[in-house]
Amino acid sequence: MNRKLFLLIFSLLLYGTSVCAQTAQKSELEQRAENEDKKGNVGTARFYLIRAFEDYVNKGQMQQGVECGVKAASLYYKKENFYKEAFDLLRRIDQAIISSKQLPSGKASALHYLTTKERFLMYMKLRKPESAKEQLNVMESQAFDSGDETLKNDFLYNKAIYYYTFGQNEKGNAVFREMAAKLTAQKEYDKVDQVYQTLIANGRRSNSASLVAQAYGSYLNWKDSVSALKSADEIKALKQQIADNEASIADKDSSLSARWMVIVALGILAAALAAALIVGGIVLLRYILLSRHQKKLIRQANDNNALKSRFISNISAQLAPTLKRLDGKLPEVQALLDFSQHIQTLSNLENTMDEEVELEDVQVAQFCEELIDKIRDQVPSGVTLKVNAPKMSASINKEYVSHILYHLLENAVAYTATGGYISLDYKKRGAHSQQFIVSDTGDGIPAEQHEEVFKPFLQVRDLTEGDGLGLPICKQMALKMNGDLNIDATFTKGTRFVLDLHS
After folding, report:
1. How far apart are CA 500 and CA 490, in angstroms?
2. Distance from CA of residue 235 to its chain's centroid?
3. How far is residue 239's CA from residue 245's CA, in Å, rounded to a whole number?
4. Cβ atoms 119, 87 nearer than 8 A
């Protein structure tokens, strides 16, 4: 009896601990993505999901990372029909799985199954049966290699959906009968019922009367057959319960002391339950207090960062008048003045990140041509300037976008040799998404520095050669406009910066 009591209390403690762990599993990036998705901000939700995928993978949390990446891929094509971007992201996810050395082969196959299934769903939506069938064959191999029965059942379900979608109803019925028989043999009647209900709902959503009719007919036949099995199971269970009760009564009647033992045991069990509830309450209270403490630490850290930023800005503002009294023709003095101005700009951006920026309509082609004209005199002979922008209007913050693109174009001029080219492109990616792209054929930036160039104060520099704050300032401006600025890692002929903007 003491052993059972110990096991009961231990299981309750484990349950309380697991609940706390599950609550803390989602990263801040993933939670932001969910909040933006609920608001209908598809582009922003997708942006945070991709960042969550990268963050999880860097931390070795591959399951959460792959799930976030697959969700981001689905947001590319389900609402905005960006199929190319979705396929590219899925390839990135697969590469991340392959690069993760610590994953067992079965776990890796299970993760690859998620990306392959998303490709299968994309080809289904595009109505490409041959491509969908290829993905289905890969899913079968991955589900088998994973050893996960849930994935094997999921594969059967998607296989049936494939056959029904492309008019192969008899094959679909055969697959569903196989799956229903498998789950029925395991007495998982609720899962079988759920599978049929899902199939019927899919048929209704796709307006496929034949699919609904086939699924509903199979569902009724299965219900009739399983009713008899359930009845037999219930009768068997009742008989067993009666037999157990009779044996229990016989045991209790053997002596009065046995009855008292049962009463005492019930009392101990009630006390154990009460103790378990108290322990659970203590665990929950401790978690609440810990969460409050962590929130307080986060608020304090944010306040400290704001104070630090304001302090640096104040120092820079106080130094500016003194520096201006020095000989501005000296390169060192001018470098200090520029550095002071850049610090103030960066600090102001950080302190006003939550403030909305004003937008205005501009003619894209004219806007891009004007920016190119500003750098034309700086371009060495033999370097070609290109503009690829449609004659259309776009709503942007002209001040920030001009600053970012002009800085990127100036950098391109500095690193592009004779015979190369510099281009400024504009692409409309969706109703609320657009891109400005600056490309050059210079030496390029090493892949390991793609993230570092956007971070300020990483190294001590000779200020006369630049303070390294130009790209960090551009990055902050992009983020303030609800967008982002990144280097295109797939571009290998030089350097390509992509400014994403979302409205």
Report:
1. 16
2. 49
3. 10
4. yes
